[in-house]
Amino acid sequence: MRSLTLWSSKAPIKFRMPTAENLIPIRLDIEVDGQRYKDAFVWNPDDPDSEVINFAKRTVKDLKLPPTFVTQIVQSVQAQLAEFRSFEGQDMHVKEKIVPLKIDLRVNNTVVRDQFLWDVSNFESDPEEFARTLCKDLNIGDPEVGPAIAVAIREQLYEIATQSVSSLREARAGKKGRRGADTFNRPGNSALDLVKYFGSKGSVIRKRKDWYLYEPIVDILSNEEVGALDAREELNAR
Predict the structure, then answer these.
(1) Residues linked to residue 100 through DSSP beta bridges, in sequence order
(2) How far, in Å, CA of 136 to CA of 130, rounded?
(3) Which residue in 12, 121, 205, 215 could disulfide with 96, CB within 3.0 to 4.6 Å?
(4) Domains contained in the chain, number
């Protein structure tokens, strides 16, 4: 049986995603000449940069997008990879901690809202497997929902990891008034604010009256409702 790999509460480690696979979330929202392309997926930062170009060309061909999208897709993916790689080699220090993660997304006609506890010190965690199991348990048939949930989880874990680098750097610099080496107790972040969800002591034990907060919600929208939401999103984007 494979043993769990946990972050030490004392010794820092080199920056990486706090999951079994070091896959990073990529989100694209590109508009060229009135055509818009939106997508979200995970990427292996160890893949050669040539794969980004191949991916962009393949995507443009499959979706019949104008050739100008190739350059835009490549630039956006490379910028996000560069941001991730800028943290590589730096120390990160995250105490063993259970944090609440939130899901609130719409994929095609399916809306999913959920929140749950995640052990960020477990390096064997698998957001993709979790998402597949969640979709199965909730009888979600759209195959695009699972990957979208996994990306949303990884985005929050990525934020946790990068914040831990910054917190450790600040702690070492000895800055006065710093935000605190314990990233997870920072107020104002809905994904990480333990005080908001668990009270001032940060307990993960919830009272029975609060159980409804952790009940997932799945709504299936009509085509008319989806059309109205798409129109509203397009208007907001402009």
Answers:
(1) 117
(2) 10
(3) 121
(4) 1
Return phi, psi of residue 208, to 5°.
-55, -35
Burial call 156-166: b when 16+ CB within 10 Å, e when fewer = bbbebbbbbbe
Domain span holding position 45 = 11-170+190-235
Give the C-alpha separation, 171 to 182, whole Å: 10
pLDDT in tens, 158-206: 999 999 998 888 888 875 454 444 444 443 343 344 434 433 333 334 4
Give a yes or no: residue 209 inside a domain.
yes
For residue 20, tell me if it sits in a domain. yes
Give the contacts of 186 (CB within 8 A, at least 6 positions apart).
Answer: 163, 179, 180, 192, 193
Cα–Cα separations (whole angstroms), residue 116 to 136, 141, 173, 209: 16, 21, 34, 16
Q: What is the pLDDT of residues 141-164, one digit of tens each?
A: 999 999 999 999 999 999 999 999
Residue 71 structure tokens: 């350059």
Domain membership flag for residue 226: yes
Structure tokens of 12?
């820092």
pTM for this predicted structure: 0.81
In a domain? residue 184: no
How far is C-alpha 128 from the geometric centre of its chain's CA atoms? 11
CA atoms of 133 and 139, how far apart (whole Å): 10
